[in-house]
Each structure stands twice: as structure tokens, then as C-alpha cells.
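#data-curation
PF: Archiving a pair of folding outputs for the training set. Convention for this channel: one message per protein, sequence first, C-alpha cells after, nothing in between. First:
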Amino acid sequence: MQTATPVPRKAPRPRADALRNRERIVTAAREMFVAHGPDVPLDEIARRAGVGNATVYRNFPDRDALVREVVCSVMERTARAAEEALAETGDAFEALERFAHAAADERISALCPMVSSTFDQHHPDLEESRERVESLVARLMDRAKAAGRLREDVEFGDLLVGVSQLSRPPAGTGCESLERFNRFVHRHVQLLLDGMRAPAPSVLPGTAVTMEDLRQG
């Protein structure tokens, strides 16, 4: 007598409301990391997301898991913005400009505190996302340089640091003031970009900042 082979059961799909709650948590965490850094209390994130503490821990068992999700989500959207810019066939510097403004909207400043954070920066998901972003933006910048539109003495790190610093509120500014601060972000990002145009009107002090420089602190 043969025993029937059990048919593996499919894992249940997350409910729509559960997915919405997860996205609300990640969005709230991103905003609070921008304003206060990655050590902001998780109950404050829950309050901003409009969910209970238990919902946060059900989705993210610890702070590292939430930080990793925020970093990966920001890098994923930033990578998509870079891909869209690379797909453009017009002026190479204008494509780079559009990417920089899109990156500011994605709150890439949420990534900066992670450089010095104690969480696992070599997690496979983070490594893959980081390498993808670096490669795409390097191609964007190389294309603008080849067209003679981007000064030769700047690198990926210069753009990342500039946009990150300009898209985060001054120290001590809470999330409540973030929306008011955002009115100035694109004005200041454009000032940065104008300083990166070729031909360069001046010689920059120091050397171009690479991602390796940023990782080494």
C-alpha cells in the first residue's frame, strides 16, 4: 500500500492591511532617521506610523531589521531613479540633475547615519543594493563627464554627501518641521549641482570623495 506524498502548502500571502502597516512603519522610520538618526526610539516610530508597538515588533524583530529595511528601500528607489536617468537620451548633465533631485526626494540622507552604525553593514541585501546604486550613479556621472558637462574632479561620494546633507534638516529640527524645511531642499541641491558643472570656475581643495573614502570614515 502506497502512502500519498503530502502536497506542500503555500505560505499564506500577507493581508493588504498588514502590508500597508509595514510600509507605514518603514516610511515613518525613514523620516525619523533623517531628522534624528537611527537611534530614535521605536515607540516614537510606531506613534508616527499610527500603529502599536506590537505591530512594529511583529514586522521587525529588532532595530537592526528595521534599519536594514529602511536602507534597502531607500537604495532601491534611488537605484530606480538612476536607471530612469540613464534611459534618457538628452543632455547628460540634465539627466544627472534629475537624478539628484529625485534622490533628495527619496531622503538619501537616511543612509548617512548607517555608515557609522553598529548594525551589519555587510548583510547580503545591503551589499547588493549598495553595489547597484554605486554602479548606476557612477555610469551617470561618467556619461556627464564624457560629454564635458560635469567637472572631472568630483566623484560619487561628492554627490552623495552633498545631496544627503542638503536634504536633511538642521540638527535639532524635529519631524514636525521637516515639511517646512523641504521647501528649500531643491533650491539648495540645484546650487550644489551648478557648482559641479564643467567648465569648473575654481580648483577644489582636497581630493574627490569616493564611496571607499566614506566607508573608511
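PF: Second:
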Amino acid sequence: MPLIRTIQIDPETRLGVWSIEEPESFFRERVHISPGIHHPHKRLQHFAGRYLLVTLFPEFPLNRIKVSESRKPLLQCDSFHFSISHCGDHVAAIVSTKAAVGIDIEEVKDKIERVSHKFLSPDERDFIDPRHSLPHKTICWSAKEAMFKWYGLGSVDFKENLVLQPFVYQPTGFITANFVKPDSNTRLYLQYIMENGLCLAWTHPV
């Protein structure tokens, strides 16, 4: 079973990372859903993400997931809050029974460097470690993606609305951030892990 990482964040919150090595049939036998996805790999990612949810919380009601107008999957009953992220052959998920959460998994790629001016403010660019520019910026991008998923309502400017406090580059660490919009001004706390060319970042329930 390629569940390569699980973290018990608190008594009500768990996350996991799955390395997809199984064929689609493996998940179809265990996850009884019918996704309207035609691309084979995207469909495989979808099945793996749903299977990871019930791996983390066996009582998770998969058949009650709906997709909001902002394309965020959710449970209208709010019995579980969750977030899923896919990256190549990896899928990550976080589930909490107490509060909204967000997660993101990213590969460290040069594209992040090329588009960093679109999601980093001048103050954020100032704290980037020039010796580790690409992984440091990847962590910032992944953290902001996790914040975006935590919010779940779309229409977010990554540079203006998602504000990271300075943090020193290291393979694992914590980030303090502010989500700033007229309808939500919230201090968020995130954690990240950089390992084997992948960055995993998630919000702690607040």
C-alpha cells in the first residue's frame, strides 16, 4: 500500500500522501463513485484522492461530496472538512472534523521561478533565500495554494490577498500568514515539508 506519509495533526485532523502505483481498477473496487472525467490519468488521480479520504477517516461519506460553484468539493453537512491536491503520481489530502483546511502538493519546477512575480509581493520577494530561490518560492506557492483551498470561494489575488510573513528557507518548517479580503481577515498557520523534489504544505485548523 503506497501510503507514503500520514500525520495526525490533532485529535480531529489527519493528512496523508499517496503514491499512485495501482491501476484504476484497484480504486474502482474500493471507491464506488462515477466521476465524469474522461482523461485517464486525471480520473485515476480523482479515484486515488477519494480513496485517500476514506483511508484517513473510514467513516468519511464519499457519496455526499458536492462541488461548489467555485469548483471546491465539499460536504454540505460540514461533518468533515477536507482538501485534496494532485501532482503527477502523488495525491495529498487533509481531513478535519472541526474546521476548514487546505493542502497542496507541488513538484519543484522552473515554472515557479518564471511566474513568481505574479504571486509574490515585493515584501515576500525580499525574504527569499537567493541560495535556494526555487525551492523557497515553491514553498511560498504551495502555501498560498493551501490558503486558497482553505478559503474555498474563489476570486483570490495571490499577491494581494494571501500574505506570507517572512520565514527562513529550510526543508521543513512553519509559516504564519494573513488571508486579507473584505469578507475574511484571518491569521493562518501553515506547515510544510520539502522532500524528494516535492513540496507539501497545509493549513492548521483555526
